[in-house]
Amino acid sequence: MRKVRSMVMSHGWLMLAPFLLAACGGGEMPAPEPEVVFMSPEDGGTYPADTPVSFQFGLENYELGAVPEEVVTARDGVGHHHLGVNTDCLAAGETIPQGDESWVHFGSGNTTIDMQLEPGEHSFVLQLGDDLHVTQAADGLCASVSITVE
Length: 150
Ligand SMILES: [Cu+2]
What we know:
CATH superfamily: Immunoglobulins
Number of strands: 9
Bound molecules: copper (II) ion
Mean pLDDT: 86
CATH class: Mainly Beta
Oligomer: single chain
Helix content: 10-25%
Largest sheet: 6 strands, mixed
Strand content: 25-35%
Low-confidence stretches: 1-21
Order of helices and strands: HEEEEEEEEE
C-alpha cells in the first residue's frame, strides 16, 4: 500500500514540473532573445515552378500583433512580419518601405503567404517591424532564405 502511494506522488510531481519551469521562466532568468524564423520554405530548398511556394513565418520570444487602425506611437515589444523579396535585411531603426515591390507587410498579424515564382534563384528576408513598420534593435529579428524554383 505504501509503495503504490509513493508512485502516485512521484507522478504528481512529474506532472507539476513543467508548470514550475514555466513559472521560473518569467522570473529572474534573462529574457530569451527574440527571433524570426522561416518555417517554410527551407533555406537552400528546390521547389517546383508549377505550384505556388508556401511561406510560413514564426516569431519567438516576441509578441505578434496586428497594426492598430490608428498608431501614434508603436507598442513596445509588439510587431508584425515583413517579407523582403530579393532584398537584404534592413538595419535596426529603419522604416520598412510601403508600396514598394520589395517588401510585403503582414500588418494583420498574418504569418503565411503563397507565392507563384518564376524559375530561378530567389532570396527572401523575414524582418520584424513595430506598429510604425520600424525595424527592431534586437539582433535576430531578421532571417533570410534562398531557394531555387525549377
Ligand atoms: Cu509593416
